[in-house]
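dumping this here so i dont lose it again. seq + smiles for pyridoxal-5'-phosphate
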Amino acid sequence: MNSQKIIETEDTYGANVYAKRPIVFMKGDEATIWDSEGREYIDCTGSYGSCLVGYCHPKIVHAISEQAAILSSCHGYAYTSVRAELMKKIVDIAPKGLEKVFLSNSGSESIECALKAARKFTGKKEVIAMMGGFHGKTLGSLSATWNMKYRSAFQPLIPHFKHVPYGNLEKVEDAVSTDTAAIVVEPIQGETGVKFPPEEFLKGLRELCNRKSLILIIDEVQTGLGRTGKMFACEHWKVTPDILCVAKGLAGGLAIGATLTRKDIMFSLSRGEHSSTYGGNPITAAAALATLDVILQENLPQKATELGERFLTHLRSMQSESKIIRDVRGLGLMIGVDFRFDIYDIITGCMRQGLLVLDAGRTVMRLLPPLTISPEQVDKASNIIVKAVEEKEKTSSLGSTP
Ligand SMILES: *Cc1c(COP(=O)(O)O)cnc(C)c1O
């Protein structure tokens, strides 16, 4: 199919739920991706963060093809070596105290398992989630997600979810009742614009959960696995949750979710109360094992710290020259550039110059590049963003306002 035909066909047969860009990808290598016109891009979308170790890492390609030729399926009713190894490895890298893992196929599913486990363990119904929080779009995870654009057509969602202001410990505590099971939170809000809570917030939530016997669920689907410079972002604040959700990037881009819990919490789910046909699939497990090896061997959390600082330095010096940038923030290679207006033109400007970036809300440019991006690509990407911003400043009225 030629690219026009590919676009037409997806548009004809696919659901119309994605904000599509008119671009057809052919091939990827590390942080570089090529389209059907042979144009080359630095990919700072990282396929929405799921391409954590870059496209087609040779070790992951090898692990997938090798496993595909040995055993392609193995339902959880039986045992298999690659899954056993993965479970052990995930628990090994997890914060201490999280000793059990349930494998599924997406971030949303990792949240579903967390919500069910928290309710079963506590015997309570209420869940406190954050305004601005994003946890997925299946009905359970959507009940924890804040954005009305995603929720409103599907009311009523699961009852007994309360949303409180992100970062406001007092409001969280006010929302706790005798029927509260859990608090669910992102350590840094991704979809809503790379938003950081006040320094003491996560610690405060931990103390509150201890005091009131609540389950603390930390959603690290976007922040986990080295993205922010530590294996898990909660480590920056020295907070360990009772349940930790991981997904994006864990299997080198293949579909996976993982819910890590304390032993007693996972034990509260009895036989049949939760399961997944594809969870822990051997090919996915092999990909995840290889991904974790790459993250550890290539010291990717450390790379995320160094390259993140390099990126932020470039972007902050641009901010000091610019009237249209409100804020530049980030940790490791999770970066947000907050503009004073809609960033559609800037995103397309970057794309024309060979850089793919994400939006998060209308005004925030979000960067989630593979952690294997090179320093030269970080510099080049920064230059492209600077140029796109300068172009926009020339044409926007804001830019010329004295
Ligand atoms: C992407 C994301 C999810 C949902 O993951 P899916 O794999 O799309 O279901 C949940 N939580 C956070 C923080 C995310 O970034």
